[in-house]
Design brief:
5-stranded mixed beta barrel, alpha/beta, globular, binds hypoxanthine
């Protein structure tokens, strides 16, 4: 059994968005935990609470607000998804990708996804930004792929290519933007886990062995659905905590720490996004 979102519901949501803004965004920006404030940079914002969009999945997590902010940034018309629904909240993979399906209906061709992530790579520190070059979609390869079920050929192929899930040209723009701003940008592989429990040391050791640099509970479903639909994707992780396979006796990972570190990176992340948008 799959629980695909019926096309009529996607259409109804897209229509509701169109009725509540006259702006026509071409870029989607998804904001992760602690990163909501990034939307403050949007000029001439039209704000649409998720409650005003039929069938839209609403996040229940503290630190995630629930609204779309549509407006201008660096001369581009951007649709900001301020708050996202996660698998661990009880949403199905199909529900999680509903927003990107709606973005497609709105004509969006590029999506920039941000998230909070634990740093597995020992060279990473909290406060670093990591450009995502690839992902390990652990629930996805184990069967919880959001594209499971009947394929809608009008959106994309049954077996979509994932050779370059994170667009190489957009990644080059992000590297250039970081260089122009004069800050370091890490680059690495993002491991998507279902959560909500943070990882055990053994799980982190496993993730490190299989090539993960950072770990988090979002992003991969959105990017798979975007690529399926021919939308270009860029992903940036805010490294909010060390995900340490060899913890010290006082090591603890908390959601509060994740949110606090998110605050610290907002100025740099905003500058990075502005730099990317300026070059588009
Ligand atoms: N693990 C999983 N998800 C996360 C983490 C983490 O350490 N930090 C922020 N999101």
């Amino acid at each position: 059994m799959s629980d695909l979102i019926p096309p009529a519901q996607i259409e109804a949501a897209a229509t509701a968005v169109r009725q509540q803004t006259s702006q026509r965004p071409q870029i989607g920006l998804v904001l992760g935990s602690g990163l909501s404030q990034l939307a403050d940079a949007i000029e001439n914002p039209d704000i649409i609470p998720y409650e005003n969009i039929p069938h839209w999945p609403v996040s229940t997590v503290y630190g995630h607000s629930g609204r779309l902010v549509i407006g201008q940034l660096e001369g581009q018309t951007v649709l900001v998804q301020q708050g996202r629904a996660h698998y661990y909240e009880g949403y199905s993979p199909a529900q999680i990708i509903m927003p990107v399906r709606v973005m497609r209906r709105l004509g969006i061709q590029t999506v920039i996804v941000t998230n909070a992530a634990g740093g597995i790579n020992p060279d990473f520190s909290p406060g670093d930004l990591m450009l995502i070059k690839d992902h390990l979609y652990l629930p996805g390869i184990a069967g919880h792929n959001p594209l499971r079920g009947a394929n809608d050929e009008s959106i994309g192929p049954r077996f979509p290519d994932m050779t370059f899930p994170y667009d190489p040209a957009l990644r080059a723009l992000a590297r250039q933007a970081a260089a122009d701003e004069g800050f370091d940008l890490q680059e690495g592989v993002y491991a998507y886990v279902a959560g909500p429990s943070f990882e055990t040391p053994a799980e982190l050791r496993f993730l490190r062995i299989i090539g993960a640099d950072a770990v988090g509970m979002s992003t991969a479903p959105t990017v798979v659905a975007a690529r399926h639909a021919g939308i270009r994707a860029l992903g940036i992780s805010s490294i909010t905590n060390k995900a340490d396979p060899d913890p010290k006796p006082d090591t603890v990972v908390t959601h509060e720490e994740v949110l606090e570190t998110g605050q610290i990176v907002i100025p740099r992340l905003t500058a990075l996004l502005r730099g990317v948008l300026r070059q588009l």
